[in-house]
Amino acid sequence: MKIFEYNEAKQVAVCGDIHGAFETMVFKTCVQYGMTDTLVIVAGDCGFGFERPNHYINLYNGLAGRLKKANNWIVFVRGNHDDPSYFQEEKICYERFRCVPDYSVIQACGLDILCVGGGVSIDRLARQREDARYIRKETASYWADEMPVFDEDKIKEAHALDTDALKRSLNEYFTLNKDESIDQSKVYLPHMAAGLGLKVAMNENFVLSVDWAMALNKQDNAKWANFYIKMGYLF
Question: Three-state SS across the chain?
Answer without folding.
Answer: CCEEECCCCCEEEEECCCCCCHHHHHHHHHHHCCCCCEEEEEECCCCCCCCCHHHHHHHHHHHHHHHHHHCCEEEEECCCCCCCHHHHCCCCEECCEEECCCCEEEEECCEEEEECCCCCCCCHHHHHHHHHHCCCCCCCCCCCCCCCCCCHHHHHHHCCCCHHHHHHHHHHHCCECCCCCECHHHHCCCCCEEEEEEEEECCCCEEEEEEEEEECCHHHCCCCCCEEEEEEECC
